[in-house]
Description:
- By secondary structure, this protein is an alpha/beta fold.
- It folds into two domains: about 1-50, Roll (2,3-Dihydroxybiphenyl 1,2-Dioxygenase, domain 1); about 60-135, 2,3-Dihydroxybiphenyl 1,2-Dioxygenase, domain 1, CATH 3.10.180.
- The protein is built from two helices and eight strands.
- A hairpin with a 5-residue loop joins strand 7 and strand 8.
- The chain is elongated and about 50 Å long.
Amino acid sequence: MRIQLALNVRDVDEAVDYYSKLFGAMPHKRRPGYANFALDEPPLKLVLFEQPDAPERINHLGVEVFDPAQVREAGARLEAADILTESEEQVVCCHAEQTKVWSDEPQGLRWEWYAITDDAPAQIAATVGCDGRVAEAAVPAVGSSAEVSAPACCEA
Length: 156
């Protein structure tokens, strides 16, 4: 089984360059305005559609691993490729203690690689969202009737 994530991107070539570095892999398929990555590790089908005027992207995306050493390995790889944004050790986020690294792709979409180190920590930082930003900053777009909810990684 693999999760599929379909993303609208401004420039498919720029996106392919970034995601090739992020995952250490080349695309499985390329067509004009289209690319996909069929990854075994992590099990993911990442589909890229060149849609420069798309109104929506995604808040952030995550890859969960089960050993903090894997997070550190990803961080070392991202740092070597000069795309590491931030590293966090044993931070409380989304009602769990996590070790994670962040990378911001060229258009600003935040990716996290993380491992849960304590699923029920005694101290909960309720004001910090999974994307490392203060939760109160998450408000609907102007003119939107959407309700504010927890970041996707926090939903059960």
